[in-house]
Amino acid sequence: MNHPAKWRWIAACLIAFTPLASHAVFTVEVTRFGGCVGPTPAGCVFDIPDNGPLDNNAALDVIDFSLPIVGQAPTVFSASGRATQTIGRDDSGRVTSILLQLTDTTVQGQSGVRIPGQIGLISGEPLRSLAGVTGFASLNGEYRSFTSGVIGHANLLLQARLGGVLLGLVDPPAVNGVPSPSPFSGFDSRSFGLPVSNLLFGVFDFQVAAGTGFFLPASGEAFAQAIPEPSTLWLMPLGLAVLALRRRARSGRL
What we know:
It is a single chain. This protein has helices at residues 3-17, 230-250; strands at residues 27-32, 45-49, 62-72, 75-89, 95-111, 115-129, 133-145, 150-162, 165-170, 175-179, 182-192, 196-208, 212-226. The chain is mainly beta. The longest helix is centred in the C-terminal third of the chain and has 21 residues, at 230-250. It starts with a helix and ends with a helix.
């Protein structure tokens, strides 16, 4: 995929995928892009909420999925894997961090020259912070041929986003005609210093040819953490000063 066309495609994916804060359940969305027959894209979009009909794991914050057919001819792929959500909270129960992970995941092209698709992880709760947010995207896996020793075409890109805020972007080079397997990895961390309030999502955009795809034995990760608010930072030395004054008063030295 040439670079300008690639970014136009990514922008279109983001417009179609941007989550809303009304989501109340941790969700995985698997999509095959392109024309689909009928008023709804049946077979081209699978919405998999935590403990929904397509979730094969009864545990909360864990989604196991297995989709043998995603899309419609002439471009079809299969996808299976595990998605997990880990939410950190402070003593008041406020969300302070969110980690989304995709592990033990396999995507394989079934038919088509370059099959465009996406796996999206959407957090079940928003992260709110007046001081902003910091985060990262991390990717560790390998491109594979499932039918021969040579990879026809495979390409994968991961974004970590809190609403419209980009927290990490990992873009391994596409592979064509290289021996299988072909490992890839990447890490990118960014911060945003303005107030935020939105869901975290990790978006895995890919293109694969029939018989090729990718495997994530470790994980693809999207992470977001609230930056401590200035008022919170000021309260700490203030509290220490009050304690010191109380101790001096009790000792009769005030």
